[in-house]
Description:
Structural class: alpha/beta
CATH architecture of the largest domain: 3-Layer(aba) Sandwich
Radius of gyration: 21 Å
Distance between the termini: 30 Å
Strand order of the largest sheet: 9-8-7-6-10-11-12
CATH topology of the largest domain: Rossmann fold
Largest sheet: 7 strands, mixed
Strand content: 5-15%
Shape: globular
Number of strands: 12
Number of domains: 3
Helix content: 40-55%
Amino acid sequence: MKQQSSYEYIQAVHKKIKERNLGQSEFLQATWEVFDSLKPVFEQHPEYVEQGILERISEPERFIEFRVTWEDDEGTVHVNRGYRVQFNSTLGPFKGGLRFHPTLTGSVVKFLGFEQIFKNALTGLPIGGGKGGSDFDPKGKSDREIMRFCQSFMTELSRHIGPDIDVPAGDIGVGKREIGYMFGQYKRLKNVSEAGVFTGKNPDNGGSLIRKEATGYGTVYFVEEMLKDQGHSFKDSRVIVSGSGNVSIYAMEKAIEFGATVVACSDSEGFVYDPDGIDVETVKQLKEVERKRIYHYLEHHPKAQYGNEKSDIWKIKCDIALPCATQNEIDRESAQAMVENLVKAVGEGANMPCTEEAIRVLTNNGVLFAPAKAANAGGVAVSAMEMSQNSMRYAWSSEEVDEKLLQVMTTIYKTCTDTAEQYGSPGNLIIGANIAGFKKIADAMVSHGLN
């Protein structure tokens, strides 16, 4: 009988995944993006095939879906869905954020959790991969409505988490306010003070300094390493950053610190273009304090321009693009516009913000590309540092955490470049990140036996 090639094996496994996860387009996209990089790995490591590593790593250890019932300020009862995927605990407790957004589905949760496995492995820290959240929309809700929702959500989730089991953090729609409400409910239900059960807490309540900034800072640190290898830099570059949440704001802040001019950012309704450079302090005031839409930026900077088609942000000429909003925000058409405008580099600050077609357009045209599971790993890296500080009952200074973050991101970059070269694809950070993350998990799973 003809021996199955590595590619045939990968295709056969993914075919089974498609059959078992019908309609879960985001999850299928995420799994194939990793699988497609792994052909040389299975050629060199037949033991991975023998022990079914690919089949095991793509099936969650546990998927939890539950009802969340809460009451608004008018006394009306609402019902949302809550999720937690505990994907892989080979390296340590499940670790990954909670997202509150009306577009959240089981497929999105699974794609995020799957990506988290490899991202967490790349940090070199002892954490497994998980993700969760709800289709609840915090926009337009009062503080008390958000508190009631968070308490109801945590009443169920508290059964499944713990500092050595599963450690959630924040994501889109979940900041230190929401984490505070959930952490308070967890303590009430468990009658224990386990600071390490959540990360992203307020620094006054066991949170790490630089956690809010970490994903954005880390993305810029990674992209700067990639640029330096090609004789470029953020200095004197025009940069576009999509989004205006934590990742976007602090990617802008660090890029400006590195000498760049950030000319545009966005939110879910549109984008602002400021040729003189986006004023990050204004964006912070609007988004972190006043919780207003990005078009209010023009009230403070009337020379700026607003566009209500947020995808048009990618038609603005820039040297470096940092998509930091949400998944699949850059499609083939947007990528082509960026290439025509001679973009030099794209760094994924969000999770899977580029479609497969967009990535092909960018990489086939020589654009430097930093994939999300490597470039945006700074957030979870500092979350793991927060866990360490909680365990020690100790707090590091901002400078100490930032230095550790920089070290983690430069190490991830070197790991990706070295792995890509080792497996015959020098300079391809997508392949480098996928293989490096997969091998770390796979080797540990082999040593653990079947589970």
